[in-house]
Amino acid sequence: MTTAKLFLHGVPDSPAIWHPLLAELKLGGTPVAVPALPGFTGPLPAGFPATKEAYADWAVGEAAALFAAHGPIDIVGHDWGALIAQRVAMLRPDLIRSWAASNAVIDPDYRGHRVARIWNTPILGEIFMALSTPAKLAQGLAAQGMPADIAAEEAAQWTHKDKRRAILKLYRSAKGLSFAHDWALDIPKLPAKGALIWGADDPYVDLSVAQRFAANRGVPLTVIEGAGHWAIAERPVEVAAALRTFWEER
């Protein structure tokens, strides 16, 4: 049976970030789910608190639905989607055949990048969001290597106030990006079949974070030289090759 795939995007993205990689993977005939994080492409669901635990529980539901239909799944995440994918694998290893994380990983020593610290700070985070226009976001994403058409599509989502509210709630629930006292404690629960794929020039999560995790946990690390945080969209050929090799391993 073909293993179903679940792809989880990060911040400030949407499922559009996966378009180049999915085109390269050519997963025709494979069950694939590429959901939007709640509140990221439409209104926040009523009563949804937009915390990291809420997003993890939501993702468990997405994984469980795929599992019910197709059996154990391959889960792939980028940025916050990578953190959530790892959390799903910790909480429900029975659902997972493999996990892969790109340019983010649950690490007890990582303390977050500058923008994460801004978003974590009340008032300052709201001011940042108010001053961050779609045009500026598109320009900034493209300057960091994201394909211009996808940067424009992602920036168009920035007009949704619920998305900006959700991002602030998410980062504050994680104290910026600090997992030492909760999610990182469960790293030993991760299924053995995991992999990291990393843009070497990531300005948000340094390559050394991935190297430390890979060494400590004995998981393979593929480094995409000359790529940044959005290597999945910037260099989809190399990322697709790494994923195919990983999935084919027993």
Condensed summary:
By secondary structure, the chain is an alpha/beta fold.
Any overview of this molecule?
- This protein has one domain: Rossmann fold, CATH 3.40.50.
- Helix content is 45%, strand content 12%.
- The chain has a six-stranded parallel beta sheet, with helices on both faces.
- Helix 1 packs across helix 11 and helix 2 crosses helix 3.
- The longest helix has 19 residues.
- The protein starts with a strand and ends with a helix.
Spell out the key features of this protein.
Rossmann fold, alpha/beta
The domain count comes to 1
Mean pLDDT: 96
- Unreliably modeled segments: none
**Which structural class is indicated by helix and strand composition?**
alpha/beta
Write the layout of secondary structure elements.
Layout: E1 5-8, H1 19-25, E2 32-33, H2 52-70, E3 73-78, H3 80-91, E4 96-102, H4 114-119, H5 124-131, H6 134-143, H7 148-157, H8 161-173, E5 194-199, H9 207-217, E6 221-224, H10 231-234, H11 236-248
Parallel strand pairs: 1-2, 1-3, 3-4, 4-5, 5-6
Helix pairs in contact: 1-11, 2-3, 6-7
